[in-house]
Amino acid sequence: xxxxxxxxxxxxxxxxxxxxxxxxxxxxxxxxxxxxxxxxxxxxxxxxxxxxxxxxxxxxxxxxxxxxxxxxxxxxxxxxxxxxxxxxxxxxxxxxxxxxxxxxxxxxxxxxxxxxxxxxxxxxxxxxxxxxxxxxxxxxxxxxxxxxxxxxxxxxxxxxxxxxxxxxxxxxxxxxxxxxxxxxxxxxxxxxxxxxxxxxxxxxxxxxxxxxxxxxxxxxxxxxxxxxxxxxxxxxxxxxxxxxxxxxxxxxxxxxxxxxxxxxxxxxxxxxxxxxxxxxxxxxxxxxxxxxxxxxxxxxxxxxxxxxxxxxxxxxxxxxxxxxxxxxxxxxxxxxx
Length: 337
Description:
This protein has a five-stranded mixed sheet. Strand 1 (32-36), helix 2 and strand 2 (67-71) form a beta-alpha-beta unit. 49% of the residues lie in helices and 7% in strands. The chain is elongated. The protein folds into two domains: 32-135, Periplasmic binding protein-like II (D-Maltodextrin-Binding Protein, domain 2); 155-335, Lysozyme, CATH 1.10.530. It has 13 helices and five strands. Helix 6 (167-177) runs parallel beside helix 9, helix 10 packs across helix 11 (266-278) and helix 10 packs across helix 13. The longest helix is centred in the first third of the chain and has 21 residues, at 2-22. The chain is of the alpha/beta class.
């Protein structure tokens, strides 16, 4: 009688597997539409927005989807967007509690902030909660989390195995420039302190602080996406560097000019070069050109034939920018050999 029982048991298992093969997926495969809301507590030095973005992306990929996550506007009615189905999930990285009703489901997101779903997406909320629980059991969980919650100020670190959560991206795209990746990390730190949600008064956004027109020109449609923003910023650096290849005396000087052009724009820097050349200065070295930059603030500059962009009010800032990035690079070289 043992053989028939074995056959029956095998038949039952095959039936179960067959049924499971024909079960439809619990989602339709379309992108996970998310938003990150910064309403609530004041942001900290921790990279909580970046961590929320990373978690949402990991969760979506685990379910066989991509995440389409944007930054919510201040006081945007994101909860209403959940109720209407315009969003699948909203992350609140800096807020422990949100006023919700029975139409919404809230789950804790790794002890920092919460994720909120529509009650109509109860299955999604359950899957997300289970995934977060399993994520915390991963062997590399603490390393991933630490990369977003460590101290990033290069002057407050002695040594580290990493500089930022985006080191792998920085390594790849620094190769495109032929740069030490820690120099690119220094640029990102100066621009945004590694906060993907960083926004300037001029509208510059993301890790590389690109203004909308520049971001669009270099293929960045979502400034919150670290890879898109870094890639676009690097392509901008390449374009800037091309403008100064015939001026700089060597690669080190070319890097200084590239940093200056990234900060101020190539037109402004070329005006400085033109004025330095007009004064008989050797323009192949950035320090020689930067020495004349304070003069570029004077109203009389605008009337000179070799000046195309008028007075340069931000010249001192550009000089400081080049110094700071190079100093951060030097620190990072010692912090993370």
